[in-house]
Amino acid sequence: MDYRYDFSNNKERNRKKIIFIVIFSILVIMFVAFFFRNSNNKLVSSISSVVSSPINWVYSIFNKTSNGISDSFTNVDELRAENERLSQENEQLKLEILESQKILDENATLKQMLNIQKEYQHFKLVMGNIIYREHDNWTQTFTINVGKNDGIELNQTVVHEKGLVGYISGVTDNTAVVTTLLDPSSSVSVNISTVNEPAVVNGDLELKSQNKLKLTYIPLDTEIAVSDMLYTSGIGLMYPSSIPVGKIISIVNNKNDVNRYALVEPSVDISKISEVAVIIN
């Protein structure tokens, strides 16, 4: 049997013990010094300060790091709170802008209605708002929010501040359909302002998308010119006289030509209006 003793292992264990004892002793001395650093004894206080300086250094670094982390979390919370506050203010501003725009639109509508009433003050009017526009290739109509309950009847004249719009072609208790001048079925007897001669303004299938009308049945020997104004003649039972209809913008063919006609721009841009008035007397 081998009874040899391994002295190398024993030395290694002793060295580890010594290292442990030394480190432990240093730590004890440093912590004792740390707690006695504020001693009234100047010598003890000075020695303690020197010995505990590594602990102070570590403590200082730890304290700064922890404060930095704490400040970072605080800043993040503050930023989140500020972002939430700004988001709420932004939503509030959007609502205020929408409300302001609504008020402006209402004021514009009221102003428009007042202008229409002023322009046709010698008629009895019922004001209406357009609530639906027909979108097809054949007709040019829209629906307004007044009907039989408001005194609206078939064939009554519909006007805007600047002139004639059309006539009532359908009516229910609370709504009415307006057939406009642009509709191909529309026909209006007019007077040519400069010569006081009669003619007829018609809606035209090819011209309605261009917001244009066609002037026909122009007397053969009548001199007409671009910019001549056209007004309702009052002939027939549908339209009162002297309501602006439009102006001539071009003439096709010459004087004494039976096929002569002119293109007319309506006084009212029907595609852009939102309020109208119905003449009920």
Say what the CATH topology of the largest domain is.
Answer: Thrombin, subunit H
Percent of residues in helices: 25-40%
The total count of helices amounts to 2
Total beta strands: 12
Shape: rod-shaped
Task: Describe this entry's structure for a reader.
This protein has helices at 7-35, 42-119, and strands at residues 125-133, 141-144, 157-160, 163-171, 176-180, 187-192, 197-202, 213-216, 229-232, 244-252, 261-266, 275-279. It is of the alpha+beta class. The chain folds into 2 domains: 1-119; 125-279, Thrombin, subunit H, CATH 2.40.10. The strands form 2 sheets. Strands 1-2-5-4-3-12 form a 6-stranded antiparallel β-barrel. It has a 6-stranded antiparallel barrel with strand order 6-7-8-11-10-9. A hairpin with a 4-residue loop joins strand 6 and strand 7 (197-202). Helix 1 crosses helix 2. The longest helix is centred in the first third of the chain and has 78 residues, at 42-119.
